[in-house]
Amino acid sequence: MTQKTGVFLINLGTPDDTSVPKVRRYLRQFLSDPRVIDINPIARWMLLNLAILPFRPKQSAEAYREIWTDEGSPLLIFSQNLTKAVADLLGDDYMVRLGMRYQNPSMEAAMAEFRAAGVERIIALPLYPQYASSSTGSCLEELYRIAGADWNTPSLAVVPPFYDHPAFLDCQAEIARESLGDLDQYDAILMSYHGIPERHITKSEVGNAGHCLKSDSCCDRFVTANRYCYRAQCFHVSREIAKRLNLSEDRYYVTFQSRLGRTPWIRPYTDIVLEELPAKGVKKLGVLIPSFTADCLETLEEIEMRGLESFVEAGGESLKMVPSLNDHPKWVEAVCTMVREQGVAATTAMTV
Ligand SMILES: C=CC1=C(C)c2cc3[nH]c(cc4nc(cc5[nH]c(cc1n2)c(C)c5CCC(=O)O)C(CCC(=O)O)=C4C)c(C)c3C=C
Ligand SMILES: [Fe+2]
Ligand SMILES: [Fe+2]
């Protein structure tokens, strides 16, 4: 009997519903992760229980209600649709499952299904283009923990962050072209990425070379020290998308959104730039968000609703947001390509 290969798509996760208790449960699990709030455990417990959880769940639940659909959270629905489409395209040799790092469907449940089906080789694909310890790192830590606890430990192959994979970059550019139409009708294009604290960038530096965030140009090209640098990977994606869209450097901006707390996060900040652009003559803006593979709270509410509002208040006229990759057929194909490549690499590694 031929064994199926497991394909494990992993995403961040979302609350089960928009009630304050469910949003609180989600935020508690998410923000208790030491890779997300990387301070000493006692300080994290105090921050979470005294400053964040008494207030934020109510505010976040209201935001979630703005984007929730009849079927549920957009992040979950798009991730489930992608999983189904990838399963259809890969065919019977593969068993494809979705697992969320926080809440449901949990990574544990998906791994239990692989176990029950006797799947002994799993290709995991964290659905984040760029590496951050708080996203990819956290998913992989959880994956290795679950797999390592099995009596019959499965073989794992991992698709690495795909910020430089042509299938991902071509797909981003094509969806942008489809959605924005003629780029000449925009005064500028903004590429906004989820931010992370600056400290996370310096902690990711390879070999303590004193490179990261030490100069304005530290993220402009790759050297050994910044191989894991989330910000450098975001700039790389932006340059590659711009190349594919024939956008010159003076026609696009790269910014970072969704910051939390008072410590410095990587700059420039999306909300500040959105308020500054109209004064620079940018009235019609196209926006891409290439750190998310599925639309979610941070694209639909933070950018398409609140971002538009503050841009217009500052004198802007229109903001057109490009949808995330979601379950676009080109993205489904790209995911299958990356999975197949990793499968071949893993098989070769096992036979040498
Ligand atoms: C690109 C991937 C992501 C990274 C890196 C990331 C880091 C990060 N996030 C927070 C805090 C919050 N993020 C929240 C929502 C959220 N974050 C991502 C992705 C990344 N986060 C997604 C896809 C979503 C949306 C989830 C959805 O249900 O739609 C939230 C929750 C919402 C809110 O209350 O604002 C928080 C909080 C930190 C602190 C962090 C890195 C340190
Ligand atoms: Fe986040
Ligand atoms: Fe960097």
How would you describe the overall organization of this protein?
The strands form two sheets. The protein has a four-stranded parallel beta sheet with strand order 2-1-3-4, sandwiched between helices. It is globular, with a radius of gyration of 20 Å. With 352 residues, it is an alpha/beta fold. The structure holds the ligand C=CC1=C(C)c2cc3[nH]c(cc4nc(cc5[nH]c(cc1n2)c(C)c5CCC(=O)O)C(CCC(=O)O)=C4C)c(C)c3C=C and fe (ii) ion (2 copies). The site of one fe (ii) ion (FE2) has 2 residues, from loops.
Number of helices: 12
Assign the CATH architecture of the largest domain: 3-Layer(aba) Sandwich
Number of strands: 8
The unique ligands bound to this protein are: ligand L6N33NVT, fe (ii) ion
Outline of the structure:
This protein is α/β, with parallel strands linked by helices. It has twelve helices and eight strands. 46% of the residues lie in helices and 13% in strands.
Task: Compile the SSE list and pairings.
Layout: E1 5-11, H1 20-31, H2 41-52, H3 56-67, H4 74-90, E2 94-100, H5 107-116, E3 121-126, H6 133-149, E4 155-158, H7 166-180, E5 188-194, H8 198-203, H9 230-244, E6 252-257, H10 270-276, E7 284-288, H11 297-313, E8 318-321, H12 329-351
Parallel strand pairs: 1-2, 1-3, 3-4, 5-6, 5-7, 7-8
The site of one fe (ii) ion has 8 residues, from helix 9.
Index terms:
352 residues; alpha/beta; Rossmann fold; 2 domains; four-stranded parallel beta sheet; binds fe (ii) ion; Ferrochelatase_C; cytoplasm; Ferrochelatase_N; lyase; iron
